[in-house]
Amino acid sequence: MEFHLSQLSAITPTTYLSFILLAFLLHVINRKMAKRGKNRKPPQAKGAWPIIGHLHLLGGPELPHNVLGNMADKHGPIFTIKLGVHQVLVVSNADIAKECFTTNDKAFASRPKATAVELMAYNYAVFGFAPYGDYWRKMRKIIVLEVLSQRQVESLEHVRVSELRASVTDIYEAWINNKRCSNSGKVKVDMSQWLGNYLLNILVRINSGRRLSSNNEEGVRFQRVVRKFFELLGAFVVSDYIPYLNWVDMGGYKKAMKQTGKELDMFFEQWLKERRLIHGGSAQELEGSQVFIDVLIKILQDASEDEFPDVDHDIIIKSTCLQLLAAGLDTTAITLTWALSLLLNNPKSIEIAQHEIDEHVGKDRLVEESDLKNLVYLDAIIKETFRLFPAGPLSVPHESVEECIVGGYNIPIGTRLLVNLKKMHRDPNAWSEPDKFQPERFLKTKKDIDVKGKHFELLPFGGGRRICPGVSFALQALHLTLASLIQQFTLKNPTNEPIDMRESHGLSSSKATPLEVLVAPRLSSNMYHVGS
């Protein structure tokens, strides 16, 4: 069959119009799909009430991370809830958490505002709670490079060691006194209290260069105000979620926060004055000091006038002291309490850890920080403790400063982000037998996983640019303390019942009941007075 040019010219207009129509239809469809994709929202959990949203579900007897974990079972690993006027994105999956802290790290780099931070933390000058911006970036740089650098952490070994030896001696002397009175081979120790006192002494000494005794009036007052600070940090303030009720102080929390903030400031102000009197402002005398206040005084003396134009230098120093206290005390004490609780419920693990320490260190000298790299089973115990009982079961909240896409969903600016670490750390897709205490997993299938924000199935210190800068400091204190207790004492459950593993309500995942342990020395008596 022949094909003539006349035939082509006859059908060209029709074909041309068809192409135009098809292109137009495709353009309309693409615009609708793009619009639909842009407005694609994560599923919202059911049960929201008018005005308060899901607040009533999180204020009941069940712990918030467990409530959100149950929601994840229904709605999947990414969903939203409403807390008053605020939209909150809840994530409980490692892949989605990775997306938040890598691709969208800058988008989620800010912190939401909270009354407790405003009234007790120098109006957001505490950099861990500060909004994303110039001040936060500068303070982060100072903390990472100067205050909590690896070099600085290593230089503080003598403080950690001396406080640990002194506190261990207290346990030994309690055992001696108990043996005299009752001829018992073991003494019962409230380890929750012991750990809190010991870690507080470390942090106060590192901050200020002085030691607060729990037996004197000043030490008792400081411990009381610190306990109140942590209690109020997790308090529910209605106006944080329903701003137009800002005039109401339900529960009297605002009044208590103002008073607690004032009392804390009096201690920090006193420490700052003492350090200035000691050195007289001399840059030469400040050089080489390991006391955090001295380090900060020196840094700010060398800073240009316009580096911190809106924040008083004394406020920067005092707020950083508070930051180190807030980040290092409660979380470290809680982690060690859970570790001991898990070990007492799994005594075979204590035997393995003791054998490892005896093999690498022996019984003729005390374990040192230089030994810790060889104690792989001890490291596995601490990782497994982080996995099962992260000190903050819900990550410190983030807030988006720009729109972003997470899990294929559009997340608007101003959205708060909660990563449910407790749920994520027990994800059966990432962990075999996720509810069981198995340190051995970190010697085998999970041996390459660390806790420094690189492996998103285990994020006890958070991730991205807001990861806790005190990771190295915390790990040194955790490993040395646990290793010393395991090396120097036999540790027994005082009852035939398993240790109570219920969690308490609050910002941190602390035990609902104090941890009491029967202890007895397992080294020669002269080993308990070394370095005290």
Tell me the radius of gyration.
28 Å
Strand/helix succession: HHHEEHHHHHEHHHHHHHHEEEEHHEE
Sheet with the most strands, sense and barrel status: 4 strands, mixed
Number of domains: 1
User: In CATH, what is the homologous superfamily?
Assistant: Cytochrome P450
Shape designation: globular
Strand order of the largest sheet: 1-2-7-4
- Outline the low-pLDDT stretches: 1-11
CATH architecture: Orthogonal Bundle
State the separation between the terminal residues, measured CA to CA.
107 Å
> How many runs of DSSP E, i.e. beta strands?
9
Helix content: 40-55%
Task: Give the CATH topology.
Answer: Cytochrome p450
* CATH class designation: Mainly Alpha
Give the structural class.
alpha+beta
Question: Averaged pLDDT, please?
Answer: 90
Residues in β-strands, percent: 5-15%
Q: Helical stretch count?
A: 18
Structure description:
The chain contains 18 helices and 9 strands. The protein has helices spanning 5-38, 55-58, 64-75, 94-101, 115-120, 134-147, 150-155, 157-182, 191-208, 217-233, 253-279, 283-286, 292-302, 313-345, 347-360, 376-388, 421-425, 471-488, and strands spanning 78-83, 86-91, 187-190, 398-399, 404-406, 409-411, 416-419, 489-492, 516-521. The strands form 3 sheets. It has a 4-stranded mixed β-sheet with strand order 1-2-7-4. A 3-stranded antiparallel β-sheet has the order 3-9-8. It has a two-stranded antiparallel sheet with strand order 5-6. It is globular and about 70 Å long. The N and C termini lie far apart (107 Å).
